[in-house]
Amino acid sequence: ILLLNRLVMSSVVYFDFPLRSKHGGVVECMRWHCKLPLFAVAITLPGEEGDCIVSIFDRKGVPIENAEVSGVSGCDQLVWHPSRPWLACGWRNGSITVRVESEMSGQTSGGTTYKLDQVHTTTISALVWNETSGTSFHRLLSADQNGQLMFWKCDLRGKFQQAPIVHCNMKEAGEVTNVVVRNLPPARDISALAKAAAQGDQAALDAYVAGVRRGATGMAASPDALSFYVGCSNGQIFHVDEKGTNCVVFDSKQYGAGGIRQLLFDSGSAVLVAVTNSLTIYAFSVQSEGTNVREVGSVRLSGRNTLPQIAWAGSSSVAIATGENVMRMFATDTLDNYLLNPIEEANDSIVSVAYSKPIQLLCAGCQSGKVFFWRYEPSGVKKPDRDLALDWVPEQSLDTGKSSIRWISWCEKENYMSVLSSQGVLLYEQRATASAYKAEMAAVQLSANQLAVESFSNKRRFALQCDVPVRGIAISQVTKEENVQNMVVYDGERAQVYESDVTAGRVGAVAGEFECASGEVAIHEQSVFSLEPHKLQVRNLQGVVKQLLPLSDKTGSITGMNINGSNLICCTANGFLLVYNLSKREAKSERPPKDLREAIPSLARVVSARVNSNGRLVSLLVTENVGGEEVASSRLFVWDMEMDMVIVYEFGSEEE
After folding, report:
1. SS3 at position 192
2. What are phi and psi of 192, to 5 degrees?
3. What is the DSSP string of 128-139?
């Protein structure tokens, strides 16, 4: 525990992957899919022709074969469909192509590319998908630098009508600079909230008041309702519906604030945010029909960057990179603006920003090539004069070793981050820091390839440089005969076994190294247990398989395991526990699989299973099905094997 406290600088570590593109050139733009591990990159090829290739990669930067779109001009707009593997590409010559990935076999694409009629004559400045619920088609909006808007229609298979279904001319407003979809949240019956509030329900009262402020009604929005907010270079913001009908909802010219730089819209709070070229931020409350917006506040920022980047940082905060050495923040609910300082003092310029909603992590790219991080950890204290910056905890920075970072984006599905610098693209996987402790040894990950190892017997501590990126660590018990502990490190593809002399207090040479496609590995004396697809294998220290533990369709595949003493416990995808005795030459099952769903009817998934040293008790952390959703349980379950009963310890509040 002391070693963990002293040596772990951050709870996460980043593994980098190069983009394995077959094409050299300048990366123009990049985009992650929000629900699928797909990454698109537009690369302008060297030469005077200006040809450009859009390639699709997996999350580790490996190209998907046959998944490319080529053009004769640069590509500035890449937009994935919200839920389907469909990629729309907007080109500088005004053309639009859509790549529809209908079927993928491993790393090979079976998709189709559609080229839409070229009705735009200048650079495509905005592309926006809208997934329409309850109908048999989807729509795509395109806009160009001449103020022309087009609506395109495709069926559920991604096949487009070649001509646009709606054409909207907004040329007098200048260039269309940004477009956002006005997504509508599920409608709530405000009359029902009023009744609940009258009966003393405080939560219903708060929701009712918020709904009245937004102009909500008891009527549900049509599933076909479609509207956009369009920002233009003359400073006007338009509301545009699916028929092309438009009206001006805001004009910054009266304030001398310049053209619209970027728009953001949050459907949950019905808030529209606009940033102008003069670094003025406006927040608007959007009424139910969408054509009526009410300005609730504005703030003028200072900064060095004439092209600031902004992003939502949660549902009511906006982060702005202005070229200074701090991150500027604007709270749309309280209208406060404040600053975030990095964990280390640096006279560096923050030029790019991105936020990952699932892990509540804000990151900032700098001209030096560093990435600064802040994690959102609200205290729950709501005081009028409270410093909102205290809700953001700075984390250890990441040095990419590259020059100025132009753009950062997140693959929110699997915690992958992409960094675009003037030298190209790097992909990073964020993972929890690995650590392990058993008997006379503890190991803590310091970086992707380095461990801090401590021997308790003689209080020695040293650094170990590993040949594989460390994604997991496992340590065995001390062997009685040789007074040796073995440690295995693995990365999901390879494993390395180190032998430790307990008496001398040092880790010796590598005892074995082998390929091992496993996300979890455990070790017991001279045996390495590896969870591999649909099987649990037992290997010797050199990786030779010496036993295969059978699995049945009933129990399902193993999702986790734990070794304590001579006991191995495994949890499965179907909610079973498997128990093995390791005291003999081979691992043996000494009792039938335990079906946890009989004792825990609401069980969704076993998160963690740990067995005690004598093999009698197994502690369980689980998720449960509550109201059709999978939620983390506030209960600790303990299975007593001898009595075959599950004991429950409740750690939630009485109301929970």
Report:
1. helix
2. -65, -35
3. EEE--TTSSEEE
Mean pLDDT of the residues in the chain: 86
Q: What is the pLDDT of residue 381?
A: 67
Q: pTM of the predicted model, to two decimals?
A: 0.80
**According to the model, what pLDDT value does residue 146 have?**
94
Q: Nearest-CA neighbor of 443 among 528, 13, 434? A: 434
Whether pLDDT at 31 is above 90: yes
Q: Provide the angle, in degrees to the nearest 10, between the axes of the packed helices 202-213 and 190-198.
A: 140
CA distance linking residue 475 with residue 473, whole number of Å: 7
The full DSSP string for 423-492 is TEEEEEEEEEPPEEEETTEEEEE-SSSEEEEEETTTTEEEEEE-SS--SEEEEPPPPTTT-EEEEEEE-S
291 burial class (0-12, 13-18, 19+ CB within 10 angstroms)?
A: middle
CA–centroid distance for 399 within its chain:
20
Query: Residue 232 pLDDT > 60, yes or no?
Result: yes
C-beta of residue 472 within 8 angstroms of C-beta of residue 489: yes
Q: Which two tokens stand for residue 156?
A: 């559920």
Q: What are the CB-based long-range contacts (under 8 Å, 24+) for 441-444?
A: 441/475, 441/485, 441/487, 441/500, 441/502, 442/3, 442/4, 442/475, 443/473, 443/475, 443/487, 444/3, 444/4, 444/7, 444/8
pLDDT tens, 565-606?
999 999 999 999 999 999 998 999 988 999 999 999 999 999
Q: Where are the beta strands (DSSP E) in 252-308?
A: 260-266, 271-276, 280-286, 293-300
What's the pLDDT at 208? 60
Pick from 158, 27, 144, 55: nearest CA to 91: 144
- For residue 606, the Cα-to-chain-centroid distance in whole angstroms is 22
